[in-house]
Amino acid sequence: MSSNTQIKTPKVSFKEINTIAIPAIIAGIAEPLISLSDIAIIGNVEENAVEALAAAGIVGSFLSAIIWILAQTKTAISALVSQHLGSNRLHAVKTLVPQTILLNFLLSLLIYFITAFFAELIFSAYNAEGLILDYTKSYYRIRALGYPFTLVTFAIFGVFRGLQNTLWAMKCSLVGGAVNIGLDFLLVYGIEGFIPAMHLEGAAIASIIAQGVMLAMALYFFIKKTPFHLKLSLNLNPNLKPLISMASNLFLRTLALNIAIYLANSYATDYGKNYIAAQSILMNIWLFFSFFIDGYANAGNAIGGKLLGAKAYTKLWDLSKDISKYAVIIALILMGICALFYDEIGLIFNKDEQVLLLFSSVFWLVLLMQPINSIAFMFDGIFKGLGEAKYLRNVLLVATFLGFWPTLLIFDYLGLKLYAIWIAFFVWMLIRSLALVIKFRNKYLDKT
Predict the structure, then answer these.
(1) Cβ contacts of 429 within 8 Å, gap of 6 or more
(2) CB 280 within 8 A of CB 52
(3) What is the pTM of this model?
(4) How far, CA to CA in Å, does 445 sit from each of 308, 378, 420?
């Protein structure tokens, strides 16, 4: 037993973990659900369905990349709030919260203007051309207007998670997802004689309205339910520098993560329109699974930070074992459901025979990696709550540039196309999970 001072209390219960994890799962799948609903509805329009589906998939991946990179302040503020909650010092971060929200808002405006201006250059780099490129540019320039809504909402969700409450974020996400799906049908297909069919642009407008609804609800819960406020202090909070440092390392980590996703989509686009259409479905299902499993990672983030603040290392070790077990079970359940409806799932998104054939030939590989993904995501969440941003950055850099990229090059050279992409993802996730498990064991087992 370590000589470190720590609280001698029973381990975190299944109920405590699920109180955070289950609402976090529902909240976390809102963004990928928006993209999936867009893809499912767009992929079934009568006009240029394959090109529209490819464009929606490319834009969805790029939006996820940008949001993941910029939203790392959500993780940073969650870690700091949870650690200060554990040490009973929430007063020390009261001015930090509105400063962080403002930082996210300003970053979102900057990214919007830069990416909207260079949209053609950006999506040409994904090997999009012709009608796919035209669809991609018009769809993105509307969807990107939602950056301020999304990034401010995510910062507020980070505060909620730090306070050990993911229920408020869940409510916001459920309403936002329902609004998006309803408006998708209304605006994409239109109502004859009343609302014109707006195709891709309609899906983009639906997404923005849904994000605005989520932000309005998040602000309500923030103002009415939390001990924080939106009043800005001219004096910078002393925790702002550590937050920016943590967020910067997580920016670089997420940038490396999204380089892997960019390479995957770029290669798939180069293979042809049917390949990128199939890849769009595969990637968005993979992202959906990731956000689903990530609910338990969010619980690890919130509870782990609180336990670190309280120096409760034995509870932290037990938490890592329990939360990993629950996540693997979730992954196995998802695998089972998808295996049962293997052929039907592709039909939800597209009816093109060639696209469906490519999708079904690779989908089993996406399913096979889910238990490994769950372990990587669990320890990602715990390490974020512990403030271990530098190590997370280094792991992703190694996994991407020494794992994913070389594997992709080798199997692409062998002509395996979509198989090359998903074998590379398998190697990528294996490196991430092993590196995090080994580090956590070496650092915290001796403290129990």
Answers:
(1) 369, 372, 373, 376, 399
(2) no
(3) 0.76
(4) 14, 17, 37
